[in-house]
Design a protein that fits this description.
By secondary structure, the protein is an alpha+beta fold. It has three helices and three strands.
Length: 106
């Protein structure tokens, strides 16, 4: 599905990402020009390393605790964690909280 995303700017405007040369996608990523699904697709296509995140879950019906996840961004880290651990969120006023911290390699 992500392969049908079209580039909205530049030399390859209106081309599907799957048809854009890897060198151009790398340049777009290096210059922070891609966002959302386009960024995720480009990072996957170029085999970029995933970032590591620490996620602390509180207030869940099932799944409270601290977890470590590798993902391309914070949003996909939480989505991935929800699927892997099967976190059951509350529907109360306070709800379930996710405190996420990006861990930097030294």
């Amino acid at each position: 599905m992500n392969s049908i995303i079209k580039l909205k700017f530049g030399r390859y405007k209106n081309n599907m990402l799957k048809d854009v040369p890897k060198e151009y996608l790398r340049w777009c990523l290096d210059n922070k020009l891609l966002k959302g699904r386009a960024m995720l697709y480009a990072k996957q296509k170029l085999s970029y390393p995933k970032d590591r995140y620490k996620i602390e879950v509180e207030g869940a019906v099932i799944g409270n605790g601290t977890y470590y996840v590798e993902a391309y961004n914070k949003e996909t880290a939480i989505t991935q964690l929800r699927k892997e651990v099967n976190i059951k969120s509350t529907q109360s006023f306070c709800g379930t909280s996710f405190k996420i911290t990006e861990l930097h390699n030294k």
